[in-house]
Amino acid sequence: MRNVNLSGLRSHNTARVLGLLRAAGGDGVSRLELAERTGLTPQAVSKIAARLREEGLVAGAGRGPATGGKPRTLLRLVPDAAHAVGLHLDRDRLTAVLVDLAGVTVAVRTGPLDLGAGPAHVVAVAAAEVAALRGAGTLMGVGAAMPGPLDHVAGVPHRVTGFPAWDGFPLRDALRDALPAASRDASEEAAEGVAGGGAGAVAGGGAPPVVVDKDTNAAALALALREPGGSSFAYVHAGTGLGAGLVLGGAVYRGARTGAGEFGHQTVQLDGAPCGCGGRGCLEALCLAAVARGDLDGAARVLGVGVANLAGLLDIDRVLLGGRVVAKAPERFVRGVGAALAERARRTGGPEVPAALTRGTPHLVAEGAAQLVLAPVFGR
Q1: Burial 180-189 (b: 16+ CB within 10 A, else e)
Q2: CA quadruple 118, 123, 128, 129: dihedral sign
Q3: In this structure, are residues 6 and 138 in contact, taking their beta carbons and an 8 Å threshold?
Q4: Whole-angstrom Cα distance, residue 116 to residue 17?
Q5: Smallest Cα–Cα separation from 173: which of 195, 189, 149?
Q6: Distance of alpha carbon 177 from alpha carbon 169, whole angstroms
Q7: I need a surface site. Which of 53, 169, 319, 367 has the fewest CB within 10 A?
């Protein structure tokens, strides 16, 4: 498979065309329709389409029905022309996925991971997983998601609870530099193409771009891509830690310093048990302590308190629950969180915010990490 020159994907107009081609699926769409939907001239669309065909990203899809004249030639996206790798670096497990241009996961690898073994070890393991998944295909980039807090723009984790060695480690740059030579077939200019589409990607040295974000933000992005524009919700993740990804007005909200969503470390009990973050009575400490005791109903009630606070602060449409802890007893967590949201609605007189489980893939965070690379290419 030949390489894709990604520099041309920097264009906002190209992203709009690619987004429409992706949405059309295998049925394809004509150049005239692309011009009408984007507001571009037919000549501009033809130039973009010609470049995309040259790069192998777009192919013919036959002809459309005649509408009083010559049948129009249809174009379609070629999903397997290129891929992105998504990595979920959890505290004790690594999940890696290979995602095609249509957003379909075509390969998955999972294995144990010790985040406490240190950044150098984790980067080496992650780079090996990228090489194993990528094979000989075209790699558009790598998205890596891990527990926060972290600086999404700089690609640098901060004080991950329980893992002080990660504070200030340049994960994005280190992972890019560690990618094997087989992955470095895109030119420096190509890497800049994806970097132009999303914050956090870096060009240089011919390596494919790497984007780093919090696990909850990656999951929230994956969920937002399934939603109609303008929706507002919180993805609440209960796994080896507690966190939230926020989607406001259809876009992932990271905050001015990309630190939004540090949901687990809100204090809900002033004289509570110490938390690994250095505080006391944190939501994460209380919830996970209840899980460790086997009191899942109690954990759900504690989680519900935090979720109700979050819903009241942000006035969101709904709450989606996910993560390994929730998966142990999904009905209990939906019931416990739902009860807290209903109680808040009774007190305030406002509408009740519904709580539901995330549906579909068990690899939500890793797939969202791949979308950190892909979504900007399609104008999302």
Answers
A1: eeebebbeee
A2: positive
A3: no
A4: 44
A5: 195
A6: 14
A7: 53
φ/ψ (deg, to 5) at 358:
-70, 145
Instruction: Kindly report, residue by residue over 222-279, the tens digit of the pLDDT.
Output: 999 987 677 899 999 999 999 999 999 999 999 998 889 889 999 999 999 999 889 9
Rounded Cα–Cα distance for residues 39 and 95 (Å)? 41
The model's pTM: 0.88
Closest of 302, 55, 335, 303 to residue 193, by C-alpha = 55
d(CA 214, CA 368): 10
Q: Kind and range of the H or E element at 74?
A: strand 73-77
Assess contact for 290 and 302: CB atoms under 8 A.
Answer: yes
Distance CA 233, CA 317 (A): 5
Q: Is the dihedral of CA 285, 291, 296, 298 positive or negative?
A: negative
Handedness of CA 232, 19, 29, 140 (dihedral sign): negative
* CA distance linking residue 251 with residue 229, whole number of Å: 8
Give 57-98 pLDDT, tens digit per residue. 999 877 766 565 566 789 999 999 999 999 999 999 999 999
Task: Say which amino acid occupies 235.
Answer: Y
